[in-house]
Design a protein that fits this description.
Blueprint: E1 2-8, H1 14-19, H2 22-28, E2 40-45, H3 48-57, H4 59-65, E3 66-72, E4 81-83, H5 84-91, E5 103-110, E6 113-121, E7 137-142, H6 145-149
Parallel strand pairs: 4-7
Antiparallel strand pairs: 1-2, 1-3, 3-4, 5-6, 5-7
Helix pairs in contact: 3-5
């Protein structure tokens, strides 16, 4: 199963914004919704293609209410997420899955929230640590070249 996780902008209640609107509610109605992080919404889809398609269906809402769109496909990595842009590139065959692990965005997890994103480069297969000591954990997101350069 490929998981899609939408992390809301701090100013909004993501679940309310998505589930109170008929089109988004219908798009999400066939999925079991979980909340892996504060102000987030996650669903399991059958494939990377289905995950990207769901994000495309929800694009109007993602642009307005979502800070981060994360996609985790166990065939690429069981623990690390892909950005939406990188997931689309893999789905479309523009980037091979094994070429996705060099450019990263690390989030700290503090009291269930994703905080303090850092862009880092993986060297020789080693993921750098987040440089804050007060974190409960770290979330690794693989990003596209364009996202890393921005």
């Amino acid at each position: 199963m490929t998981q899609v996780c939408l992390v809301g902008d701090p100013e909004v209640s993501l679940a309310y914004e998505l589930l109170s609107r008929e089109t988004a509610r219908e798009a999400l109605s066939t999925y079991e919704i979980t909340e892996p992080f504060a102000n987030s919404l996650a669903v399991d889809t059958v494939s990377l293609g289905a995950a990207v398609s769901l994000c495309n269906d929800l694009n109007w809402y993602l642009v307005r209410f979502v800070r981060e769109t994360l996609i985790r496909d166990p065939s690429i990595d069981a623990d690390e997420w892909l950005s939406r842009d990188l997931a689309r590139q893999v789905r479309d065959g523009e980037v091979r899955p094994e070429e996705t692990d060099r450019r990263l965005k690390l989030f700290g997890v503090l009291d269930g929230e994703l905080v303090d994103p850092r862009y880092v480069t993986r060297e020789q297969g080693t993921t750098p640590d987040h440089d804050r000591d007060d974190l409960d954990g770290t979330v690794v997101v693989r990003v596209s070249d364009a996202e890393f350069s921005a």
